[in-house]
TrEMBL record:
E.C. numbers: 2.1.1.98
NCBIfam families per the UniProt record, alphabetical: dph5
PANTHER family, per database record: DIPHTHINE METHYL ESTER SYNTHASE (PTHR10882:SF0), DIPHTHINE SYNTHASE (PTHR10882)
Class of the enzyme per the UniProt entry, highest EC level: transferase
Associated pathway: Protein modification; peptidyl-diphthamide biosynthesis
Residue stretches making up the Tetrapyrrole methylase domain: 1-206
Catalysed reaction, written as an equation: 2-[(3S)-amino-3-carboxypropyl]-L-histidyl-[translation elongation factor 2] + 3 S-adenosyl-L-methionine = diphthine-[translation elongation factor 2] + 3 S-adenosyl-L-homocysteine + 3 H(+)
Pfam family, one: TP_methylase
GO biological process: methylation; protein histidyl modification to diphthamide
Residue sites binding S-adenosyl-L-methionine per the record: 9, 85, 88, 113-114, 165, 203, 228
GO molecular function: diphthine synthase activity
Database matches in InterPro entries: 4pyrrol_Mease, 4pyrrol_Methylase_sf, 4pyrrole_Mease_sub1, 4pyrrole_Mease_sub2, Dphthn_synthase
Protein name, per record: Diphthine synthase
Length: 250
């Protein structure tokens, strides 16, 4: 059996009791470490907490060579762990389909996701979000403008945009970098950059940071360590504006 388990948002204690019991009784435990991360716990700490060896997986292991996972799931119970919820803004549906097609039973134990956490932290209503987007680190000769296009299209419909920030093996994109990149994309599209941004750092920790402001203000603000995420709000409802004043320094 292959069970996808969400670890929640920050450290080893954010997993559900159901998830923890399943990990502890699993035959093999895999940790997907490229779509998101638990910044409050490293692999050694997870292994100690679960009393199990944890095999860390990178994109290549899941998307191109998932044999090890599938064979483990054919021969016993394999737990596949992902920070957040395993099926939110990740590509794991493909693995679940592959398993089912091989006759392997699958299941999901959900975890708290950044997608809902940002609503509580920012006060922006979840039903007012449009399509989300990701800002990647630009590479030589490659500077995609699609995030700016998504933001503009959402904005025209009065919808907020959630902007996921890139994770690389050796670095994590900050809110400061995200705002700078979006402003540059708008410039290249010959558009005005958004007037307001909301930056969030370390959701799920004891001290998450939430800050709303104009682009230059957020670029200068120190959000501390990763993980970080960005929202570009559309026109605010009265209650949303009030919430940002009280909790995000608007
Ligand atoms: C592709 S999404 C994966 C979401 C995950 N599956 C979930 O349900 O939470 C990962 C991105 O979300 C943001 N993120 C995830 N967890 C976060 C946290 N605890 N605090 C701030 N941002 C976070 C970061 O921008 C990160 O690059």
């Amino acid at each position: 059996m292959l069970i996808f388990i969400g670890l929640g948002l920050f450290d080893e204690r954010d997993i559900s009791i159901k998830g923890l019991e399943t990990v502890k009784s699993a035959d093999r435990v895999f940790l997907e470490a490229y779509t998101s991360r638990l910044m409050g716990a490293d692999t050694a700490r997870l292994e100690e907490y679960y009393g199990k060896e944890v095999k860390v997986l990178y994109r290549e292991d899941v998307e191109n060579n998932p044999e090890d996972i599938l064979i483990a799931a054919e021969n016993g119970t394999a737990a596949f762990l992902t920070a957040g919820d395993p099926m939110v803004s990740t590509t794991h549906s493909d693995l679940r389909i592959r398993a089912e097609e091989r006759g392997i039973e699958t299941g999901i134990i959900h975890g708290a996701s950044i997608q809902s956490a940002i609503c509580g932290l920012s006060g922006l209503q979840n039903y007012r979000f449009g399509k989300s987007c990701s800002v990647p680190y630009p590479e030589k000769g490659w500077f995609p403008l699609t995030p700016a296009e998504t933001i503009r299209s959402n904005m025209a419909q009065g919808l907020h945009t959630l902007v996921y920030l890139d994770i690389k093996p050796d670095r994590y994109m900050t809110v400061n970098e995200g705002v700078e990149l979006i402003s540059e994309m708008c410039k290249r599209r010959e558009e005005e950059p958004p007037e307001l941004f909301v930056g969030i750092a370390r959701a799920g920790s004891d001290r998450p940071v939430v800050r709303a402001g104009r682009g230059p203000d957020l670029i200068a603000y120190d959000f501390g360590g990763p993980l970080q995420i960005l929202i570009v709000p559309a026109e605010l409802h009265m209650m949303e504006e009030e919430y940002l004043r009280v909790f995000a320094g608007l």
